[in-house]
Amino acid sequence: MKKKLLSVLLVSSMVLSLAACGSTSSDNTSATTTDAETTTATGTDTTAATTDAAATDTATGSNTGVINVCLASEPATLDPALNSSVDGATMITHLFSGLAKWGLDANGNLEIQPDCAEELVEGVVNDDGTVTYTYTLRDGLTWSDGQAVTAGDFVYAWNRAAGQALAADYGYMFEVVDGYADMWADGATGDETLNVTAIDDKTLEVTLVNTISYWDELLAFPTYMPVREDVVADESWATDPSTYVNNGAYTMTSWDHNSVITLTKNDNFVDAADVTMNEINFYLSDDANNQLANFENGDWEFIDDVPTNEIASLKENYPTEFVVAGQLGTYYVCWNINEEILPASSTLTGADKANAENEIRNALALLIDRNYIVNDIAQGGQVPASSFVAMGLTDADGSQFYENAGSDSSYVGYYDVSEDAYESNWASALETLKKYYTFDESTQQFTDFPTLTYLYNTSEGHKAIGEAIQSTFAGIGITMNLENQEWATFLDTRKAGDYSIARNGWLGDYNDPISFLDMWTTASGNNDVQFGKGDNASVQAYSLDLTDLGYDTKVENGTWAETYDVLISDIKTCTDSTTRYELMHRAEDLLMSTGCICPIYYYTDLYMISDKVSGFFSSPLGYKYFMYCTVTE
Question: Apex CA 334: angle with CA 516 and CA 417, to 5°?
Fold first, then answer.
């Protein structure tokens, strides 16, 4: 999931799927190999976060019942089907309840738990290989306006989120459900639906195309949360508290746009007795200095970003309130694949042009000093990244997927990111670029590389990383201008492909490498690179041979749709674990061969939380949970 902005221990201890709604806005949230469990306000484990009423006294004082937090700037949307950011997902998990949720077990470990469903049942395998699940809804489920939540609400919401009419970024999350392929097939009329049925008001039946190991995690994902048909008929329903009808622990009582969103405890929520925080004020800011100032003066109890130049002092001055936690994600730079990067004099066309551009982008990736970025700019325990699939995701044999990426056994990943390799990487990159551009030996600069524009969302950290890359490229004669945009505008610009090169960040949506790979199919709403779109749709430059794995697929110089899209489809229908993971490695190989994805580092999650707060927990998904908090005077 997009983020505004784990180690062997993490891998071995997480038997669940840890993920975050894709996109991130903060530069300080990155995925390291630090901790397999949830992080609490004190940086240690907690027991299950279900305390008594919010007004009870604690050992240190009385619970105020109000917490002031800042995750990011104005969210692009709080419609569960349309959201694709981590900050939006955090708010949505406080406002909505799906069939399942993330929670803490009795030992303080993160796990998937039933939410609207009475229990998370086992599926029944049908004769044709499909798998059917039948869920019973709990008694007492209501919408915030008092109407009962029904199984039909889930049927409607899922079909809406999956359908072509809405064209949601995360619509592809329903590919695992039988009927999705028909909804998106050539010639689809719009009347096609998912194989999900309301047997009655309390019974929901859904059939999957085959066994899916991460199905329960999908049920806890915001895109799978229910909405009501009569409510969303108003297209602006999710922007105004007066029309925002939801079924979760909180209701939205005010939204002062670009300032603060206030959530108030929903006393009609079925588990209201467990909710200890009466009011959450989500302040909206992308200014890390502003966030820190409000934290230090006591106005805000939680901030999700800090100025990078303050990290060293914050570690020293706030040893219990400055937190570095593990996260499953990758900070990276992405290229618009349709951006012209060859010199104006180039006569290359078709596959030759595409292959040259792939080689150029990969050469430029070698020039970026990831160790400098991690050690001198990010400063949060991030790990230089040599693959897109993040550290902490497991492979078929239980090892880490990223450790098995790439084809060179002398280093991990698709290029050597060790400090010792930087000089040789630089030399190799220059030799590659000299094949395509004019190089002045006297100045050691290229003279005909087109001017680039680097797009980033407003953040001093993102700016500093952009400036580091800008300086590196300038050293060899490449001009790269920097352009920043506010978060919501930035997401729209990148999604539309109206950029040449941009910063990006992705947190896995569950603990499976496919959550980093299926986003790059042609029709995916998260395909910011524009693979298979625009001019790239007709480019025949990609090859795929799966015959050694028992498939008939063998394509030479095919399109992205004929290769990558087919490969992802095969992964999602493959039930043999070893073959499936090998297919995922080949998908990442094809993805990385384009050079459009340039990993910078694996994320860690840096935030600050007041010592006055207890009951807080977060996850490597990037989600933050405040409903079970208490804040003492």
Answer: 80
